[in-house]
Amino acid sequence: MAEPVQTPHAFATRIFSGIQPSGGLTLGNYLGALKRFVEKQDEGIETIYCLVDMHAITVWQDPVKLRQQTREAAAGFIAAGIDPARSILFNQSQVSAHAELAWIFNCVARMGWMGRMTQWKDKTAGQNSENASLGLFAYPALMAADILAYKATHVPVGEDQKQHLELCRDIAAKFNNDFGVNFFPITEPVIEGAATRVMSLRDGTKKMSKSDPSDQSRINLTDDADTIAKKIRKAKTDPEPLPSELDGLKDRPDARNLVNIYAALANITPAQVLADHGGAQFGSFKPALADLAVSVMGPITTEMNRLMQDTAEIDRILGEGSVRANAIARPIVDEVYDIVGMIRSRML
Ligand code: AMP
Ligand code: TRP
Description:
The protein is mostly helical and 348 residues long. The protein folds into two domains: 14-190 and 310-340, 3-Layer(aba) Sandwich (Rossmann fold), CATH 3.40.50; 215-306, Tyrosyl-Transfer RNA Synthetase (Orthogonal Bundle), CATH 1.10.240.10. 52% of the residues lie in helices and 6% in strands. The protein contains 13 helices and five strands. It has helices at 27-42, 53-56, 63-80, 97-108, 111-115, 118-124, 134-148, 162-179, 225-233, 253-266, 270-277, 282-307, 311-340; strands spanning 14-19, 46-51, 88-91, 154-156, 188-190. Strands 1-2-3 form a three-stranded parallel β-sheet. Strands 4-5 form a two-stranded parallel ribbon. Helix 8 (162-179) links the parallel strand 4 and strand 5. It is globular and about 70 Å long. Bound molecules: adenosine monophosphate (AMP) and tryptophan. Adenosine monophosphate binds next to helix 1.
C-alpha cells in the first residue's frame, strides 16, 4: 500500500462525520458519536455532519421507514445540540459529489483492501457473501468519498470505524501518489472519551447496535423514561459489587460497560465512577445509572419528538445543509475529474 505523502496539517481543520439512518439512534450513537459532534461544533471548528442514506441502502431498507428514520436522525442531531446554522447538516444522497467521488475511489481502492474489512466480514459471516450487495462491499470507498469530498482533516467516530478510516487514509495516499499530487489530506480519526464502544445491555462483549434483533440490548433515543429505567434494571450484570479500582473490571465486561456508560453520561472518568460507587451492589448502582440516563436523554427525546411534528421544517434544514455542502464539495470533485484526465466542457 502507498505511504502517506501528506500530513493533514497542511489543510485547514475541518470535521466530517456520518451516521446511517438505518434504524433509530441508540445510546451508543449518542455517546460514541453525536455527543462529540456537538462538542466539536461548540469548540468553533468547521463541522459537517451527514445522514448517510446511500450507505443505509447497502442492506435492504423499506423506503417509507428510511425516509422516517432519516428525518428522525436529523431531529435527534438537532435535539442533541447540533445547530444547523453553525454545522452543516444534510443527507448524503442530496449531494451528488459523494456518489461521483465514490466511483473514482472504486477505481483507486483494491479488492484485497475491501475484502479485509472486518465490517464486511462480520456482515457476511455465516451467509453466502455472493448474495451481499456490491454496495456493501464497496461501502468503505463511499465512506472515504464522504470525507474527502470536503478534504476533511478529522473524523470523530466510535471505535468500530477505525479500520474504515485507515482505508480512507490509504485511498487518499494512493490517489496522491498515483497522480503525483498533494490533493487529499491524510485524515485523522478522532476516537476519544469513555464510550467509544458502548456494549449491548444483554451481552457486554457485543456492540450496542441499532440492528440488534433484541430491543432490550439497547437504549434508543426514542425510549421514554420508564423504558430506559426498565432496560437498565434488566441489564446483564454479575453478582459481585462494583470494585473500587479499574483493574477490578478487567474480566467483567457487563459491569465495565455500565461503568463506562455512567462515566460518559456524567462527563467523568470511569475511575471517578468507581471512586464514588466502589463497593456498591448493582441493586443500588443501576437505579443511580437509570436516573442519570433519564436526566440526560429525557430532554433530548422530548425535543426530538417536538421537532418531528414539523417534518417540512426538517426537510428544509436538510435541503439548506445540502446546498452548503455542495458548495464545498462540487469544486473539489471537479478538480478531481481534471486530475484524473476527464474532459470537462463545463457547459452544464
Ligand atoms: P452507525 O450507527 O453504524 O452509522 O454509527 C454511527 C456512529 O456511531 C459511528 O461513529 C459509530 O462508530 C458510532 N457508534 C455506533 N454504535 C456505537 C457503540 N455501540 N458505541 C460507540 N459508538 C458507536
Ligand atoms: N460507516 C459509518 C458507520 O457505520 C458511517 C459513515 C459513513 C461515516 N460515512 C462516514 C462515518 C464518514 C464517518 C465519516 O458508523
